[in-house]
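Could someone model pyridoxal-5'-phosphate with this protein?
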Amino acid sequence: MLAANLAALRQRIAQACAAAGREPHEVSLIAVTKFFPAADLGHLHALGVNDIGESRDQEASAKLDELTLSDPAARAGLRVHFVGQVQTNKAASIARYADVVHSVDRPRLVDALSKAAVRTERVVQVLLQVDLGEPAAAAGRGGVRPAGVSALAEQVASAPGLQLAGVMAVAPRDEDPHAAFQRLAAVHDQLLADHPQALIVSAGMSQDFPAAIACGATHLRVGTAILGSRPALR
Ligand SMILES: *Cc1c(COP(=O)(O)O)cnc(C)c1O
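Reply:
Sure, complex below.
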């Protein structure tokens, strides 16, 4: 089932790229494996997936330890993306295994990740999660408002152990994702002017990845379309 889902998804990604005048190699696929067992990470790696996404620290850390024992080559071959909201007290744990943290949205978290990365002698790539919702909506999905991106970017860029790598967003539920992802693209363009190495735009999930591709996403975070539906998150 994984192989068939993955093949179908890759075909849909290629179609969306063609429609947008982009090349499929410009778009990386992150398989979001939250709620699915460590064995699935191994299966996905065997199917050519090099990037996996997790959103809960305890689960991610336990699964990666398990994979290290059962399939060390797969573990070594996987780049780990932390895509969920990060509690500051989890930063130290996450910095031990995450290659990229997609959900950085506040100064205290930057400090905590930086200290932890230095302590573990790792370099962690950081994406700034941008809140694309209405200011009044208090969406609760995390993210820095577009007006706060520039200051937070400066902080990340000068933080030891961290590399500012781009932006991430989740489209608000109540809006056409094209419109939301276009705002993200505009935020990214501004960021690039000061930080030309911050090339990543992490946007697009199972339901809205074609819109994200049309708006310039470089990294898709897809769970359900690959692994099937998981128990309700919250
Ligand atoms: C779970 C999750 C995804 C994947 O969502 P699907 O709809 O299953 O593709 C992507 N991004 C984040 C931040 C997530 O938490």
